[in-house]
Amino acid sequence: MQTETPRRRPIRLTRRGRIALVAVGAVVVGTSIAVPMALPGGQPAEPGSLTVPEGWRADQVYTAVDKALALRAGTTRKEVPTMRLALPADARGNPEGYLLPATYPVTAKTTPRSLLSSMVNNANKRFRAGPVAAGASGASTLNLYQTVTIASIIQTEADDKTDMGKVARVIHNRLEQGMPLQMDSTIDYVLNRSTSHSDNDDARVDTPYNTYTRTGLPPTPIASPGDQALRAAVAPPPGDWLYFVTVKPGDTRFTAEYEDHQRNVTEFNQNQNQNQSPAAPSPSPTS
After folding, report:
1. Contact 50, 32 (CB under 8 A)
2. What pLDDT, in 10s, does the model give residues 119-166?
3. What angle do CA 157, 191, 182 make, to 5 degrees?
4. Could you tell me if residue 148 is inside a domain?
5. 108-143 burial, b for 16+ CB within 10 Å, e for fewer?
6. Which position among 46, 49, 171, 207 has the lowest Cβ density within 10 Å, counted as fewest Cβ atoms?
7. Is residue 244 part of a domain?
8. Is the Cβ–Cβ distance between 35 and 99 less than 8 Å?
9. Structural domain count of the chain
């Protein structure tokens, strides 16, 4: 098993087909709250409700709350510091990752505070339930907040839900070996973008969310994880994988060998070159 990355330029792997090295810790999920499908523009799934899909960032939730309550844009975000939400101390008042994906009722009496409080309270109930809490406090050295952070990365990185377990294992393996996660998704988060076009300059940006230049986890979750991402974070399948890349949609390859990974990256680049459109050039992963 490889214990460190060869001294080469970073390789990226993300669910968007980019390449990246990955690693993190463990998480668990408990009771179930139905997570409905997202509708375009964050619109409610039905009259009088607001749907928060899996994988949304807090900023997306704030925007949806403003629209659902017909408030001036930016109102919810501005009020968050005064809400006194029931967040763990590690969150330092930032509800990222704790705005639980679900459908919430909206009435004439609903306020941004009442909506976000419901999301956070539901998240606490789920995260503190037996399996999640046990996974965070058992053999793992990670606490509950770190577990939620890992689940948020899995939610963002996995090309498909069936890949979440392996992505989680890569994260755990790299954390255990002291390897940087090298996740484009954490850089995308701090740069507030939804599609990955990371280059070498991005990989050098000075931020605690840069998992290329810093080891360990980012300081907060980067999205709202769903049940399957939580389950994967807490109980990933056994494996020695350290690398993964989505060579093409539906074909994500995991390996423990750097040389194998480079061959997969080469195939990824070939696919990108074949599918590249002059109007919409595809970013080239570094190697």
Report:
1. no
2. 999 999 999 886 666 665 555 678 999 999 999 999 999 988 999 999
3. 45
4. no
5. eebebbbbbbbbbebbbebbeeebbbebbeeebebe
6. 46
7. yes
8. no
9. 2
Q: Compute CA distances 116 → 39, 57, 61, 99, whole Å.
A: 19, 13, 9, 7
pLDDT tens digit sequence for 224-248:
999 999 999 999 999 999 999 989 8
* Measured distance CA(122)–CA(120) in Å, rounded: 5
Q: Are residues 183 and 105 in the same domain?
A: no
Q: Is the model's pTM score more than 0.85?
A: no
Same domain, 183 and 265: yes
- What is the chain's length? 287
Q: Which of 77, 117, 79, 82 is nearest to 100 (CA)?
A: 117
For the ranges 128-142, 180-194, 211-225, which has the lowest average pLDDT?
Answer: 128-142
Judge if 261 and 168 occupy the same domain: yes
Q: State whether residue 29 is helix, strand or coil.
A: coil
**Contacts (Cβ under 8 Å, ≥6 apart) of 201:** none
Largest Cα–Cα separation, the chain: 59
- Residue 90 has which token pair? 């590690």
Nearest to 24 by CA among 137, 160, 186, 159: 186
Token pair recorded at residue 100: 């639980």
